[in-house]
Amino acid sequence: MSNMELLKKKPFFLNDMQVEWVKNTMNQLTTKEKIGQLFCLIAYSSDHGYLSNLAHNYQIGGIMGRRMPLEEVCDMTNFLQKESKIPMLIAANFEAGGDGLIEEGTNIGPNMQIGATGNPDFASKQGYVCAKEGLAVGANWAFAPVIDIDKNFRNPIMATRLFGSDDKLVKDCGVAYTKSAQELGMAVSIKHFPGDGVDERDQHLVTSSNDLSCEEWDATFGEAYKASIDAGALTVMIGHIMQPAYTKKLCPGIKDEDIMPATLAPELINGLLRDQLDFNGLIVTDATTMAGFAIPMPRSKAVPYTIAAGCDVFLFTKNLEEDFAYMTAGVEDGTITPGRLDEAVMRILGLKAALKLPEKKMDGNIYVNAEEARLIVGCEEHRKIELACADQAVTLIKNTQNLLPLSVEEHKRVLIYPIISGESAFGGGGEDVAGIVKEALEKEGFIVTIFASEQGYEGMLQRYQDMTDKYDLMIYVGNMATKSNQTTVRIEWAQPMGADCPIYQSVIPTIFISFANPYHLLDVPRIRTYINAYKLKEANINAVIDKLLGRSQFKGVTPVDPFCGRWDAKL
């Protein structure tokens, strides 16, 4: 039996009765049931047939829900808690707000918007809203906060998911979120250890790398993780990200080809996270469907090895039946020793006890009511926080032409250029950003046209003078959000020959407003008025319009280098 005394220590702080529940529950579990507890799977709906299979045939320990309508989330969580033998961990990506799980939820973030306020108190409020709205619908585990640090503007997956590039700001925001959410009873999972934001590649597509030296890592990511661990973070999510400097330090003589991502690196999990950073809580892998996990070794070996290496929870499966069989085989052949299996299950049950899930199931408080949840999710208190955060965050990066504030009389005829992603992504994307901004400007009295590329070749295109005679103002509106399965976030200009490039900006006043990625000055360096708004939501659109027209001051301070190190981006 594992050392149950660990559960009386930080971050679990279980009392004798709770430890006894863990011990008694473990004693009653079969090996198959223990293996089931290792899995945290995924739910896209409240389909009872699907959920029943997970609860009864696999007896999984937890589930992560994707965005659904509020009533469906409540149905899902109630059904799972009713059908499961052991209360279930129910997680979601509560990175920005309650809308990480609930369609009607409030979006306070994304994190870079929090960073742009320069005030970690907004991270505390972000954690508060995530916990209040998540708990209202039956969730109990936030896969947040993201305490990665922006060290490479070319990283295609993090962007606005990061608080910024200021090490202290990231650290303070992580602590603020952690304390706020866990005070309300929502477990956090600080992520993605050992830290994303250094590599320009995406762990969804490749085993990426945090290439800082040990000393650099200690002073940056190490400080952020230690601070949130000291603040009581109950869980840590491990990324499919290598940290070669620490692997080489902890495994002298290791060959380069043997360096593994943290999910498959016991020296990083045990030597760095457990021993050096003194983390005693639960460790969960990032999604094991990612290529970063699948590439380094055969899946039959990787599935049990990540638990053997020190992870406690296995997130998602590529094929449920197959991965469960791989995990079972790993227990049977000794890859996962009985002691390691029991230690993982002990921490899983310990987290459930720390969240008081057994007591809540016993007295019926684990079940939620959709009508009561509606009074909390998207409530006026939370919307006011969203509005305040947007007002404080919208950032004027450049205004070298002294164009602002705008005047309806002087800039009445407006041409909008949409710069968008083609599909939905982590922070949005795919919305009709041009149409939304067009409607907002027309309400203010502007006459607005949306750009459409003309057909033709050299010598047959529209006269330059026609454009300068026709428009008083040009506005580029960007909504290129980060998403999986992309390798870069760069503007792809229209044909023919970059038809929508800002070729008129020297003669027609031109503004670029980004509602997602903050780094577009790399592609439009001579734009003289540039604004970062961080997300395409009503609160931010309204805040931008108010600031464009001078009704509100720009208050945001950029948390990253929006000039991407380019001298010409500052012109």
Top-tier CATH class of the largest domain: Alpha Beta
Instruction: Tally the beta strands.
Output: 16
Q: Biggest sheet: strands, sense, closure? A: 8 strands, parallel
- Figure out the total of helices: 20
The CATH architecture designation of the largest domain is Alpha-Beta Barrel
Low-confidence stretches: 424-428
For the record, the count of structural domains works out to 2
Secondary structure: helix percent:
25-40%
CA radius of gyration is 25 Å
Overall mean pLDDT: 95
Report the sheet-strand fraction: 5-15%
Q: Quickly give the structural class.
A: alpha/beta
CATH superfamily of the largest domain: Glycoside hydrolase, family 3, N-terminal domain
What distance lies between the first and last C-alpha atoms, to the nearest angstrom?
66 Å
What is the 3D shape? globular
The CATH topology of the largest domain corresponds to TIM Barrel
* Largest sheet: spatial strand order: 9-7-5-4-3-2-1-10
Structure in words:
- The protein is of the alpha/beta class and 571 residues long.
- The chain has two domains: 37-374, TIM Barrel; 394-570, Glycoside hydrolase family 3 C-terminal domain (Rossmann fold, 3-Layer(aba) Sandwich).
- The chain has 20 helices and 16 strands.
- It has helices at 16-28, 31-37, 48-58, 70-83, 111-117, 121-136, 167-183, 214-230, 244-250, 266-276, 291-294, 299-308, 320-332, 338-354, 357-363, 370-374, 380-393, 433-443, 464-470, 538-548, and strands at residues 39-43, 62-65, 89-92, 141-142, 187-193, 208-209, 235-238, 241-242, 282-285, 314-315, 395-399, 413-420, 447-450, 473-479, 510-514, 529-532.
- Strands 9-7-5-4-3-2-1-10 form an eight-stranded parallel beta sheet. Strands 11-16-15-14-12-13 form a six-stranded mixed beta sheet, covered by helices on one side.
- Helix 1 (16-28) packs across helix 14.
- The protein starts with 15 loop residues before the first helix and ends in a 23-residue tail after the last helix.
- Residues 424-428 have low confidence and may be disordered.
